[in-house]
Write a structure and sequence with these properties.
9 helices; 282 residues; Rossmann fold; 4-stranded antiparallel sheet; binds adenosine-5'-diphosphate; alpha/beta; binds magnesium ion
Length: 282
Amino acid sequence: MSHSAVAVAPEREVLALRGVSKRFGAVQALTDVDFHVGAGEVVALVGDNGAGKSTLVKVMSGVYQPDGGTISFDGRDVTIDGPAAAQDLGIATVFQDLALCDNLDVVANLFLGREIRRGGFVDEVAMETEAWRLLRSLSAKIPSVRIAIAGLSGGQRQTVAIARSLVGAPKVVMLDEPTAALGVAQTAEVLNLVERLREQGLGVILISHNMADVQQVSDRIVVLRLGRNAAEFRTAETSTADLVAAITGASDNAVTRRAERRATETETAEPATVGLHKGDPA
Ligand SMILES: Nc1ncnc2c1ncn2[C@@H]1O[C@H](COP(=O)(O)OP(=O)(O)O)[C@@H](O)[C@H]1O
Ligand SMILES: [Mg+2]
């Protein structure tokens, strides 16, 4: 099954990992994984529990050091030796727990540890102005930036966490299960935010268990299974059944192999594999 296809033109590729491996003691969490995201592209990262999604995200966010493989950012080989290094490069992560402070207001959360200062003092006015600018850039529905996080809905909290990731003007934003805790309407709002990020030219990496979300908002889908690249799809050309098969490994079983063989025998045109086959540069 092919996972080496390049779906974005090289000049648009922002973050690329090649042959990345990561072991925890006896557990080989990632084996020879390739992954990349381009500017203005939403790539979904999917896979069953234990597939290695979180480990891959933590490698890209500098939490873990890979045992092998290379990482390039904007065409240069880089080492992401900590979360600060990721942030300096322009890789922002919205972790699943959001890590917001419930008792602090929206402005304080957005600039926690990165306060805008002027003459040694925290510049509340400048931060409030910037908070509104960031939220407007996301077309976000937040009633006030002086409201405590505790008073916001789940979708609004996700919005604040995403807005916070934009402080420092990153080029890549990773979202770990952003809709996992949300209802239907709030999920739609968060998917709108993902589209705003893409419109701003950011590379977006979306980790999700929800195939409907992934299919609605991503351009490309990368499937991990047991720590390896299992398949890669262009979202527009992919059915839910294709995805589920790749995630579970069902595409490797005797029944589907037989069906594929029969299909190619009768049609002899398109290969019936689920991998991404890409000829033209995007
Ligand atoms: N810190 C760790 N120590 C030991 N094993 C780990 C650690 N993190 C992840 N693993 C193991 O690595 C594999 C991949 O896990 P993970 O990246 O969390 O997968 P996913 O996010 O796709 O569910 C699993 O077998 C998991 O148990
Ligand atoms: Mg995980």
